[in-house]
Amino acid sequence: xxxxxxxxxxxxxxxxxxxxxxxxxxxxxxxxxxxxxxxxxxxxxxxxxxxxxxxxxxxxxxxxxxxxxxxxxxxxxxxxxxxxxxxxxxxxxxxxxxxxxxxxxxxxxxxxxxxxxxxxxxxxxxxxxxxxxxxxxxxxxxxxxxxxxxxxxxxxxxxxxxxxxxxxxxxxxxxxxxxxxxxxxxxxxxxxxxxxxxxxxxxxxxxxxxxxxxxxxxxxxxxxxxxxxxxxxxxxxxxxxxxxxxxxxxxxxxxxxxxxxxxxxxxxxxxxxxxxxxxxxxxxxxxxxxxxxxxxxxxxxxxxxxxxxxxxxxxxxxxxxxxxxxxxxxxxxxxxxxxxxxxxxxxxxxxxxxxxxxxxxxxxxxxxxxxxxxxxxxxxxxxxxxxxxxxxxxxxxxxxxxxxxxxxxxxxxxxxxxxxxxxxxxxxxxxxxxxxxxxxxxxxxxxxxxxxxxxxxxxxxxxxxxxxxxxxxxxxxxxxxxxxxxxxxx
Amino acid sequence: xxxxxxxxxxxxxxxxxxxxxxxxxxxxxxxxxxxxxxxxxxxxxxxxxxxxxxxxxxxxxxxxxxxxxxxxxxxxxxxxxxxxxxxxxxxxxxxxxxxxxxxxxxxxxxxxxxxxxxxxxxxxxxxxxxxxxxxxxxxxxxxxxxxxxxxxxxxxxxxxxxxxxxxxxxxxxxxxxxxxxxxxxxxxxxxxxxxxxxxxxxxxxxxxxxxxxxxxxxxxxxxxxxxxxxxxxxxxxxxxxxxxxxxxxxxxxxxxxxxxxxxxxxxxxxxxxxxxxxxxxxxxxxxxxxxxxxxxxxxxxxxxxxxxxxxxxxxxxxxxxxxxxxxxxxxxxxxxxxxxxxxxxxxxxxxxxxxxxxxxxxxxxxxxxxxxxxxxxxxxxxxxxxxxxxxxxxxxxxxxxxxxxxxxxxxxxxxxxxxxxxxxxxxxxxxxxxxxxxxxxxxxxxxxxxxxxxxxxxxxxxxxxxxxxxxxxxxxxxxxxxxxxxxxxxxxxxxxxxxxxxxxxxxxxxxxxxxxxxxxxxxxxxxxxxxxxxxxxxxxxxxxxxxxxxxxxxxxxxxxxxxxxxxxxxxxxxxxxxxxxxxxxxxxxxxxxxxxxxxxxxxxxxxxxxxxxxxxxxxxx
Lengths: 490, 621
Ligand SMILES: [Fe+2]
Ligand SMILES: [Fe+2]
Fold this sequence. Notes:
Chain A is of the alpha+beta class. Chain A contains 18 helices and ten strands. In chain A, the strands form two sheets. Chain A has a five-stranded antiparallel β-sheet with strand order 3-2-1-4-5. Chain A has a five-stranded antiparallel β-sheet with strand order 9-8-7-6-10. The radius of gyration of chain A is 27 Å and the shape is globular. In chain B, strand 2 and strand 3 form a beta hairpin. The longest helix of chain B has 33 residues, at 15-47. One fe (ii) ion is lined by residues 278, 306, 334-335 of chain A.
């Protein structure tokens, strides 16, 4: 694996300094401040001292934006807020405020405001007062509000009527945004897993809510099929691998579960159980987990005890509800094989649950494709799948492994492939209709020169013909061709 | 609870605004009433069985209110504050009791707004109740509200929530700073491989042959980078039959008896433990399941699990002696007051719970639970449950009465009476002194119980205490004492009763009491008393001159005595020339005959035995 220094600059690098981004950041402040202003004014009068701080902040932000942009607009379109054409990033901390503004706007028949100059404190006070006094049950609240503003000479804040959103430019943003939402969901899930695992290690009570919410977001994304999260699982981060592994297993398991037709509740439970499957590892010292050489009998015992440890740790959760029970079963069974070989060998355990069989497959797939301290190069996703399908077929549920191939494709995301155009590409997303024809990001041209190439859908046919435009010749070992898979996937 | 309190001061400048306010006030009231109905129904859910008519009444009231509310107001948007639900900025629900507050449950899980949309369907309303029930049910660990709402996927209920991090920031959640002593700055270390992985050393078990699949996957075979998919011999499209098989697998998974399976796993783990600490850990997991069974009111399962734990522990103790004590430690833990204390509402909500199972369970936990069980006695409504609790105490405290005795200082008479009852069941000399204390309790019901309890102890001291109760201020206690002492059926008892009868103040007692003393005397006396009683019939005058009542009383005593000698006297007097004498004798014989046949009034002795008709439900004395 090449170090970060060798990486070509990522397309988004340097974006933090662009004026576009600066405006989005200021736009976020503006929206949050407006929200605070309105909420404060609802409790106190605008003359109240509590109103002063938010007022000053708001005026400053308007000034900054106006200086940078000239006249600008803050508008709600659909479920999002826009500052001019830029959509404000949605995150946990801004969500409620944005929603509040969008609702308040909508109630008044407004899409938002145009700011056509710097604003003064008396102007803002009058504006807020009038805004809150709008009779939202009136037939046309916009009309009265707009007239009242003019009457009180509030001129720099112009209300905008609700309009049908013009698409175009916004839709371009949309695609990039769903990708960002996916990534944020992914990293949040890793954070949540970390919290859970560390609580487990420190023998503190485990709060599962964060993990549950993270899983819910994953399930929602997967059900909406907006953006494939599987690609993200192919990027292995060394430092956070223990946590990322759990999230990867969760994403793979939910994806497989969705393919099977599990309902939302079950997908949620499967996802959380998958996140917790290695919770028992939290008690294993790092030097054992990462030992490069052969384990002693003692160490091996410690290692193979993690399913049992997991059960014990989950049993300490406050309520032993259905979710906890399923998670305990999965933690216990995930290293068993379909023929009941594997470990732990305890009691007369006769069969694996469906959830455990799913997690076992996802677990194996992700573990094989991970960088390990004792293995310089990980298996490619393609090799891992091959292994599971051929050499170790008897270890997995034959139907589920089939469904798994249908979930991740024959060339799973992260696989480096040689195309029949002699280009080299990285698989970014599988095609659910043809497992042999995924979407591929070109990373080297016919002359093997590195390029930031196009995204090619291999299921596309040549125009006016039945033959496919491009096909895969073979899977490659990325290191042999100097391909950085992570770059292609992010 | 749902008094709409004004949060915002509306500016009342314009007339229209005022009218608007009036309309709003109506709406606020309507929503507040609706939420109140919701809360009531939720409470009813916990108190009544599903087919209870009262519950149905609450449900239909709630439904009616819900539909009318949505019809009148349209979408209902509730903003969530820590202890309040706000509608249009007015509080329509306030409850600051964290354990039961709906607002608090929503708030702590990060929900900041809930919207009920017009078109809400009946099954959605039921679903909402289910969600709220689960979210406020302590046995379910008060499930995360957001998760419950998310799982349900309601079409007409929307919610806005903040992230857990923000909740933590707001200080109402739990956050754990990284352990400063932990290696690698608090994370589970996962070193970068570049240096460590100089040599390709696949991870392996102690023996070369270990090929178990694990995260530490290390296949032996070299993988070809490319392979011919067709050679694998797997057709990747799922056939219809395979799809059906998978659907069946999903159905099985949905109906999986999760609890039983997990219990099998936990049992298997417990059986496999070798180290005391890990055995204790496993046994503690087991304990959680026992407690959960109890919380769910499943006494049969709780019993079964407890004996399963004992059985496993006994087997393991054959080789690991120390496991026995550890198991007992875990079982004792179940009896902690903070846990058993929660059991009262469960018992009250489930009158159908088998008292025998309850007794059995508590006996298995042993004397450490006694304190908690005594507390329960003060909180449990159903008589059969109180009886079961007493039964358990009587068995488990037999050799350790101190806990019980310490409870005699309780402020509630009914708790003391129940404890006294238990002491009477235990009935050995170690409790006599305590019972004597109870004989001086201010509440007459306690004193009576103490008399009954003393009756169970065969000793000179208990006899002396009983006799002392003849001087009690309350007639019913004196009567109880007389009858209790009479159960001894010996001359000493009879002598004591005769002493009481002859005491100067006996004449001041009312007639019924005096008769009971004679009845008692008759029940325990021997022929030695016949002459004295006979004399009373013929002469009368023990109480200042000839007295019909006295004659009757003496006849009654003789009739109860019922020996040939006594009957001889009665038969003789039946021939008496005096009609009053004859009538007295006839009535006395009739009374005893009826009593023997079970006719007539019940004895005063059974009026309010503990763990029977009366109890804590009666409230204060
Ligand atoms: Fe594992
Ligand atoms: Fe794992």
